[in-house]
Specification:
The chain is mainly α. Helices cover 78% and strands 0% of the residues.
């Protein structure tokens, strides 16, 4: 065991060095650009457009409209970076018929999966936290006694979106252990990515479905990140911590599944 521990630590450092950091940087920069674009674009849109979005999603002011779109940017940028990284953990090597060779290393399959998965989840978390901080900065022009957003609430909402992405990536990391090819994996991931958007789309085009179900709207429509701005100030960080705990459990589950299914 003593001889294995140094080699295992070295292997983990090697995987950490080869994580797709370039993709993470691109995703983070894209998110910052999207948030900055919302800051510049929305105040210049016709008043009718802003009023439509404000009324459709029950938002009180321009700040709510801008931040709502910022949170969506956090979601898609963090999810995209995490998905790209996860595809290289097991799915890519299996599709290229390299997985059995990689698992022949003197590294347990569970440790192999953890060493490749944790850097992806960590960089996704960093992207989400950075973009959440950008959302907090974006809220500054709209602060005030009558405003619907706050810096703490914007930060918490961004962290909540990051937590949602981590929950999704954790589930996908387990599914990907058995995925046969990248095409199927991407299709499954796209379905998972779009699922949180569907209630918001239904709320926009069929608000009558939510008239007698306010609790359903409160739980599923993404505009709730603005509606409950004060609550998200503490709930967002709590959800992120919970997501990291769930991620740790998910990595262990995926490792056991890989041990049973792919050990040569």
């Amino acid at each position: 065991m003593r001889s294995l521990l140094p080699s295992l630590a070295e292997y983990r450092r090697a995987e950490l060095r080869h994580a797709p950091y370039r993709v993470a940087i691109y995703a983070g920069l894209a998110g910052l650009a999207m948030i900055a674009s919302c800051q510049l674009l929305f105040p210049r849109l016709p008043a009718q457009v802003i009023d439509f979005l404000r009324v459709a999603f029950h938002l009180r002011d321009l700040g709510g409209v801008v931040l709502f779109n910022d949170y969506v940017a956090v979601y898609f940028c963090a999810f995209s970076a995490g998905l790209f990284g996860l595809l290289g953990v097991v799915v890519g090597p299996r599709e290229e018929q390299q997985l059995e060779l990689l698992l022949c290393k003197p590294v347990p399959a569970a440790d192999f999966l953890a060493a490749r998965t944790w850097p992806v989840l960590a960089m996704t978390t960093v992207i989400g936290v950075a973009l959440a901080a950008a959302c907090a900065a974006a809220s500054l022009p709209y602060l005030g006694a009558s405003g619907s957003v706050s810096a703490a609430g914007a930060l918490g909402a961004g962290l909540a979106m990051t937590a949602l992405v981590l929950f999704q990536l954790t589930a996908l990391s387990i599914v990907f252990v058995r995925a046969a090819d990248s095409m199927n994996a991407v299709l499954v991931a796209l379905v998972v990515a779009l699922m949180p958007m569907l209630p918001s789309a239904a709320f926009l085009y069929r608000p009558d479905l939510f008239v007698d179900r306010p609790e359903l709207a409160a739980l599923t429509v993404l505009a709730n990140l603005v509606w409950y701005d004060a609550t998200l100030a503490w709930l967002g960080p709590a959800l992120l911590l919970l997501a990291l705990v769930v991620a740790a459990l998910g990595v262990r589950v995926g490792g056991r599944l890989l041990t049973r299914s792919d050990r040569p």
